[in-house]
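> call design_seq(struct)
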């Protein structure tokens, strides 16, 4: 069995293949060519810290794999004297004919990249494909996911303004300075107020651990698209609940939604479809003024696709 560490993952990963891997994983989901369950959660007693397991099987010539991601979600890591990321992960990849372990792949970078690319896939298929405007992007959250989403959306879309808000303003300011420098641009703008950041935005991405809404119904312009990624108290804490009643809500997978979005179902929200159906043109939002939401949970088969991609790329570099 080989170990592919985070540095190597970063050398091998790229946005275009990650996007394709996410499209394939979501499409195969709808075609019933995957197996995955709701993830298991093992909590450290007396703490909000969790070990989460995500096993999956994806049937695909290029991205197919049998694997299991092990994720730790430790929100208390940000309070350590030397802070650590709150989401850490490793992915085990198995031979689907023998069950032998093939690789253990670092899952920290993969989780950031694949989650960002999943949001981009959702934005492309739910929103951009309908010729909707892509002028202003609002990013709420300047943590690991917020930063990777900024790179990803800069790569795939041509926004004229990318607004950044964060609970701790200094982090958003730092990010804006760093990203304007990195891309030699001035399109990244710091926002002190989440309301002002959201108002007028065409696309909104939320990547926070908040347990209270940071996006209110009245702030979101008609026809805007939201990718809600963060999992605070639950996986739908970032958006005011009444907004879900006024939107078409898309998910990535029903197994996860049944448990992790049970709170939304309980208050009567019906999910329109999984993103795979939109990719396959089986469903779409017709009304251009209807707000759309991608409620991203993250799927095991996305990690299977990514670990296969990284494993194959790794072998290619070794065989050169
Ligand atoms: N949907 C998916 O597939 C995935 C979702 N996630 C979720 O995304 C979220 C962000 O993950 P990372 O960026 O890795 O974490 P991080 O620790 O790097 O960032 C956390 C962010 O949440 C913000 N935050 C924390 N408490 C807040 C509050 N009360 N109000 C407003 N903002 C608050 C912080 O300012 C920071 O911007 C987490 O909830 C994580 O569980 C992570 C991976 C995959
Ligand atoms: O899909 C994923 O890896 C995660 N979703 C929420 C925390 C980690």
């Amino acid at each position: 069995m080989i170990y592919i560490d985070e540095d190597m993952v970063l050398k091998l990963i790229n946005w275009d293949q990650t996007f394709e891997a996410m499209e394939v994983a979501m499409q195969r989901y709808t075609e019933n060519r995957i197996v995955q369950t709701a993830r298991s959660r093992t909590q450290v007693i007396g703490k909000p810290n969790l070990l989460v397991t995500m096993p999956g099987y994806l049937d695909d010539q290029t991205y197919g794999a049998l694997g299991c991601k092990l994720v730790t979600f430790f929100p208390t890591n940000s309070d350590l004297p030397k802070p650590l990321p709150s989401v850490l992960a490793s992915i085990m990849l198995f031979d689907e004919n023998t069950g032998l372990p093939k690789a253990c792949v670092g899952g920290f970078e993969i989780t950031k990249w694949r989650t960002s690319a999943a949001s981009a896939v959702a934005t492309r298929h739910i929103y951009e494909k309908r010729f909707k405007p892509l002028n202003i992007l609002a990013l709420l959250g300047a943590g690991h996911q917020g930063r990777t989403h900024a790179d990803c959306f800069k790569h795939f879309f041509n926004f004229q303004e990318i607004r950044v808000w964060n609970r701790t303003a200094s982090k958003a300011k730092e990010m804006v300075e760093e990203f304007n420098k990195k891309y030699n641009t001035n399109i990244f703008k710091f926002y002190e107020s989440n309301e002002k950041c959201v108002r007028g935005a065409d696309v909104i991405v939320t990547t926070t651990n908040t347990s209270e809404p940071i996006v209110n119904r009245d702030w979101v312009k008609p026809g805007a698209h939201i990718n809600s990624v963060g999992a605070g108290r639950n996986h739908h804490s970032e958006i005011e609940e009444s907004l879900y009643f006024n939107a078409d809500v898309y998910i990535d997978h029903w197994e996860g939604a049944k448990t992790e979005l049970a709170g939304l179902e309980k208050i009567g929200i019906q999910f329109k479809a999984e993103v795979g159906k939109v990719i396959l043109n089986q469903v779409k939002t017709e009304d251009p003024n209807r707000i759309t939401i991608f409620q991203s949970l993250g799927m095991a088969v996305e990690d299977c696709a990514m670990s296969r991609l990284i494993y194959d790329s790794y072998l290619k570099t070794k065989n050169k």
